[in-house]
TrEMBL record, chain A:
This is BON domain-containing protein. InterPro entries: BON_dom. It holds the Pfam family BON. Residues 3-71 form the BON domain.
TrEMBL record, chain B:
This is Metallophosphoesterase. It holds the Pfam family Metallophos. Residues 7-210 form the Calcineurin-like phosphoesterase domain. SUPFAM superfamilies: Metallo-dependent phosphatases.
């Protein structure tokens, strides 16, 4: 059986290199037959694409998509750099 | 008589627009002219670096009522179309920096902006050196060349205030939150050293989505990581004191 560290590395590499995602900052954890994706992206579509690519890279694992979608809010308060 | 007024710099990086994001960014920056005198974009404007995505970004920025200055990021280089993307942005009126500088007229004030993509290598004491294999030497030499270009551009530019715009980080403080193991791929101290040598009022960068917003160089220049996931808001606004009538 392939060591989980190598599977996690392969999934992470797929997320970074697959033309559908190109997402570098996603954390991939594997515990037993469970695969967890964590991180932040700016849209729901990207969150789903990441799950799809991760599933294809490790179809034998049960995937938990814990990636958060960050909605950019209003600009907020200015910062004075005196 | 001189009067102190603020120069308001809106900044955001890593907006990663895809072809399905058309119209979305423009909505987020609606009314920006009420809040800022200039908009700076710290790279990773596209997701995959395709020309179609570059055109989406250009269309979102076209005709904005305030000047826009941008640098590209590693994502914008991915399809080897960085020059074409920069061309699309320039056609839309965006000032695109590529290891050089520009003076932006903001009302009656002149703002000098210097910068480019930047690059990695790591931070003092824990970084790569120009030694050994050709690949390592090329990696470090690329950053060294960029840093030197910025230093020259900063020394040459004549403006009331000077801001450096980068994608990669010049310091590790604004990377806090990222795994330390990947710091060498997020920035280089050579960038900070160059800016500290030549002087600037503010450094803006992106790239580190899990990093922190605020830091400073060893020389005391304020650094802000404006990556969109770090800001959690459409853009940040930084105000620099200026004497009007310069």
């Amino acid at each position: 059986m392939e060591a989980p560290q190598y599977v996690a590395a392969r999934v992470q590499q797929a997320l970074a290199e697959d033309g559908r995602t190109h997402e570098l900052g996603i954390r991939v954890d594997i515990r037993g037959d469970q695969l967890f994706l964590r991180g932040q992206v700016s849209g729901a579509g990207q969150r789903e694409r990441l799950a799809q690519v991760a599933h294809e890279a490790a179809p034998e694992l049960h995937l938990h998509n814990e990636i958060r979608v960050v909605e950019a809010s209003e600009p907020g308060e200015d910062e004075r750099l005196d | 008589m001189s009067v102190l007024t603020d120069l308001r710099i809106a900044a955001v990086g890593d907006i990663h627009l895809g072809e399905d994001d058309r119209g979305q960014f423009r909505k987020k920056i609606g009314g920006i002219e009420e809040r800022a005198d200039v908009l700076m974009l710290a790279g990773d404007l596209t997701r995959h670096g395709t020309l179609e995505e570059g055109r989406v970004v250009a269309d979102e920025l076209r005709g904005l009522p305030i000047p826009v200055v941008a640098v590209l990021g590693n994502h914008d280089y991915h399809s080897d179309l960085q020059y074409e993307i920069a061309g699309e942005l320039r056609d839309a009126g965006v000032v695109v920096l590529d290891d050089d500088g520009a003076v932006i007229q903001c009302g009656d004030r002149k703002l000098g902006v210097v910068g480019g993509k930047g690059f990695g290598g790591g931070f003092a004491g824990k970084c790569a050196s120009e030694f050994g294999e050709r690949e390592i030497k090329n990696f470090v030499a690329h950053t060294r060349y960029i840093a030197e270009s910025w230093k020259v551009a900063l020394k040459e530019i004549v403006a009331e205030k000077r801001v450096v715009l980068s994608h990669y980080s010049p310091i590790k403080e604004t990377l806090e939150g990222e795994p330390p193991e990947i710091y060498p791929f997020l920035g280089s101290y050579l960038l900070a050293e160059a800016v500290d040598t030549a002087g600037a009022d503010l450094i803006l960068h992106g790239h580190a989505h899990k990093g922190s917003e605020k830091g400073m160089t060893p020389g005391g220049i304020r650094v802000r990581n404006v990556a969109l996931p770090v800001l959690g808001r459409a853009y940040a606004v930084y105000c620099l004191d200026c004497e009007s009538g310069f």
